[in-house]
Amino acid sequence: MKKKQLVISGQFSSLIGLLFLGIVLSFLSSSFLSLSNLMNILNQVSLNGLVAIGMTFVILSGGIDLSVGSILALSGAVLAALLKTGMPDFLSMILALLLGTILGLANGVFISRFNLQPFIVSMAFMTMFRGATFVFTQGRPITGLGDKGIFVAAGRGELYGVPLSGIILLIGFAVTAFVLAKTVYGKGIYAIGGNPEAARLSGLPVKGLRTSVYGISGFFAAMAGIILTSRLDSAQPLAGQGYELDAIAAVVLGGTSLSGGRGFMVGTVIGAFIIGVLNNGLNLLEVSSFYQQIVKGAVILLAVLLDRRK
Amino acid sequence: MKKLLVSALIVIIGAALLIGCGGTGSSSKKIGLAISTLNNPFFVTLKEGAEAKAKELGYELVVTDAQDDPAKQAGQIDDLIQKKVAVILLNPCNSDAAKTMVEKAAKAKIPVISVDRGVNGATVLSHIASDNVAGGVMAGEELLAQVGPGAKVVELQGIPGASATVDRGTGFHKAVDGKLEIVASQPADFNRDKGFTVMQNIIQGNKDIKGVFAHNDEMALGAIQALEAAKLQSVVVIGFDATDDAVAAVKAGKMKATVAQKPALIGSMAVETAVKHLKGEKVEAVIPVPLELVK
Fold first, then answer.
1. Do A234 and A124 touch, CB atoms closer than 8 A?
2. In what order do the strands lie in the sheet with B152-157?
3. Subunit contact A232:B70, Cβ cutoff 8 A
4. Which pLDDT band holds residue A295 (cuts at 50, 70, 90)?
């Protein structure tokens, strides 16, 4: 119980951080707090947010997934190719999600069956999937995807002025937060991340659980891939590069422990929004892109430092 | 205590919101410049040219750098729209991915001028880029002057179908067709390695060539290595782009000439065009920027 309180207070400090950032920016930039800019932020956060949802599962289980950016690119490219064959958009999107899940599970199988380091395995798959994307796209963007309704809506649609991608993100957050907090499966993830040996002794299917989190991660990466492909109306071979780091940053900013077992999805929501608000705010304030990177790195460093003091 | 803190913060945000809504000042003196990547000296120079012109004309330039990531660029365009800039100068990371960005700007009634790279599938106010056809003509005329009429020459083409390949090739042929004998026109995909192997293959059947025009410097430098290996140093090679390597090769006498784009001029003409439009003047749909021969 004491442990739980600690984690919650970690989330509290990131929430304070987000609010503080919001207040400062709203004083500095007149366009920051406008409704259209808030929707703009929601739209921009959606990609990193979705990837970070999957990453939260992986990190809570004590692992890491560097292959998400490449999975995003490959599923996006396959989606684009399927759409070009004239396949119905809904079916193509389902297949892209399925592909992402399978690619993610490939990580999980190697990590759990052969007991390999998640960092190295997912780095190897990151490279392989990126290479596969280049082979599949021949290094060029896939364009001319047509304007089928559901596909277009995924990245460009709005519902009462709220970007659909943002709504997908919020639903994703809600569902996964529930799964983590209230289901046997969620408790199992915390257990294998906190103490794998104890989890095994208490009869939990450790290998199965560990494999599954990478599948979830792949699923959400593919979801982001669909939205990005729709948003850019094309699949880019270089899509998603560096997304793994933004996602890890969001999870860590949200107070989830990189060593596994401790953290909440709510924290990831806040973390993703801190990064999104920071990006947006620095652009609105016309901070040069070179300085932006320094600021972003410093914020992450500050966040982990504050978290450690408790 | 925590509750107090939270409610205090909410009050502050509320106050900020009010202030924020009050300050909807005019931003018509702001021009957005969305650059594909500032990791490339070409675009850094372009940006500097644009900044100098904006300052001269009394406008504020808001620059973003997408680091060659179209997704990041889409977000930056959204941010520029939020800032209510008067015009967006867009140098797309990718011509196809830029379509949805232009459409979004159009929705917000902000005109877009494409810079250096075009936008596929959406209409922009104006497109400003190097005049590659004129550059091809320049290279062809220089080659003709160097090797004399009737000499046998080779054309190394860029990636088939790329606009630079098509335009530079068109200009080159305009200048030399009927005056020089082009014994081979083969693609080497803008790549130095391929320039080397393609040139090596061509040499096998054509030991008597006098000149080479490559659609970019990388291929030209590859061709020079192949020619040196075959002891054909006297062959005149002309490249395109004036990269640092190529300019050094020109100085060392290994390459005869290279066509230089003028990124600073592209930037400054982009700002000039934007300001022209804001003043209600009509602007051309395509504005070619002149090039120069480095020899």
1. no
2. B181-187, B152-157, B211-214, B236-240, B257-260, B292-294
3. yes
4. confident
Does A284 sit within 8 Å of B79, measured CB to CB?
yes
Q: Is the CB of residue B1 less than 8 Å away from at least one CB of chain A?
A: no
- For B175-233, write each residue's pLDDT tens digit: 999 999 999 999 898 888 889 989 999 998 888 999 999 999 999 999 999 999 889 98
Q: What is the pLDDT of residue B23?
A: 38
Residues of A in contact with B96 (CB under 8 A): 141, 143, 232-234
Buried/exposed A237-254: b ≥16 CB within 10 Å, e otherwise: bbbbbebbebbbbbbbbb
Q: Of the candidates A37, A242, A289, which has its C-beta nearest B82's C-beta?
A: A37
The pTM of the full predicted model, rounded to 2 decimals, is: 0.75
Mutate to test the interface with B, among A8, A15, A26, A288 (most CBs of B within 10 A): A26
Q: What is the pLDDT of residues A211-254, one digit of tens each?
A: 999 999 999 999 999 999 999 888 988 899 889 999 999 999 99
Q: How far from A258 is each of A192, B28, B279, CA to CA, in Å?
A: 13, 47, 56
Query: Model confidence over B29-80: pLDDT tens digits?
Result: 899 999 998 888 888 999 999 999 999 999 999 999 998 889 999 999 999 9
Q: Which residue of B has its CA nearest to A147?
A: B100
B68 contact residues in A (CB cutoff 8 A)? 238
CA A147 to chain centre: 26
Give CA–CA dist A32/A41, Å, rounded. 10
| Mutation target among B10, B79, B104, B159 for the A interface, most CBs of A within 10 A | B79
Averaged pLDDT, B142-152: 95
Instruction: Provide, as residue numbers in chain A, all residues whose Cβ is less than 8 Å from the Cβ of B67.
Output: 289
What is the model's pLDDT at position B159? 81
